[in-house]
Design goal:
This protein is mainly beta. A five-stranded antiparallel β-sheet has the order 9-10-12-15-14, with no helix packed on it. Strands 19-26-25-21-23 form a five-stranded mixed β-sheet, with no helix packed on it. The longest helix has 18 residues.
Length: 361
Amino acid sequence: MIRKFSLALLCGFACLCASAQPKVKLQKTEYDLGNIAWHNTASAVIKISNSGNKPLEITEIDPGCECTVVNWDHKTISPGSSTTLTAVYKAETLGTFMRNISVKTNAADAPIYITLKGKVKERVAVDLSAFPFKDDNIRFSSQLIEFDDVIRGEHRDITINIMNAGKKDYVPNFLRLPSWLTFKAHPATLSPGQTGRITFSLNSAALEEYGLTQTNIYLSRYPGDKIHKNGEINVCATLVPAIATKPADGSGEMTVEGPLAVIPAKMCMGAKLGKKRVRGMVYLENHGTETLHVSALQVYNPEITVLLTDQNIKPGERAALKVTVTSNVYKHKHSPRILLMTNDPLHPKISIDLVNVEPAN
């Protein structure tokens, strides 16, 4: 009897161990890089998720040839989380290509394969509409970089496209980079007429406070260049605390003992701005059991001003959020948005979008 029970227990434990394992989930296994100009580069951002119940580790990546380089953060992927690989292909041979990248993990003995394909041409027509911003001979795709809802310690990358429309080689560089931002150019030097990518990486551990951090960086056209408006790129990062998504007892519903913030996610201004300004108001309510404290009230666009009548709202009470928007709101890169940081464990960050804010005809 005891022996049978022991065998059953061992079998059950073995089954449990067998079911607990990491599992690789790919967004897709084939990436078409399209037409690439000879001697240029093209890249693919590859998402790998762990759909298992144990940590997933990438143990080895073989790009298959010297023409392909794969970069990743080498960190363990927790169950339910994901990471990204950046595969950069250097087009040194004319014609159609297909390259297989081998990725080994601790989820299985056999590797998984990711395919890059495309066609290398001697000349490729550049769509200038993909580079709407221009600073002398340098064109780029965006003047805004937003790292939204970042948890401290999390790694984030954002990529913009860049083009050298001049007649000399160009080495991308930027002025006034903050300590929490780095960049890498692909390729490191752009030949005349060549396009490339700039990948900006956020060091979230270097952000000092929760909430919104904003700064401007400036494209450098040549060594010794000075700050100039056409090369301005606005960068912002919104740091938020980790939010609990399940109750401690594992039940399906979460009940919170503490403050509970309730406010509309959108605020309808409902008027054209004309030459002046428009005002509106919504209410922030506390449906919780403790005082709701608003530690930060910030705006993404400098043409928005806000006033909260009370930053400490008792249970069952509310405070008015008064908003004013000027007619210059669309002269800035950021969309009309307001940010509140609170002590509500479920809503530490509240974002409110202003809608029906229309510029004058």
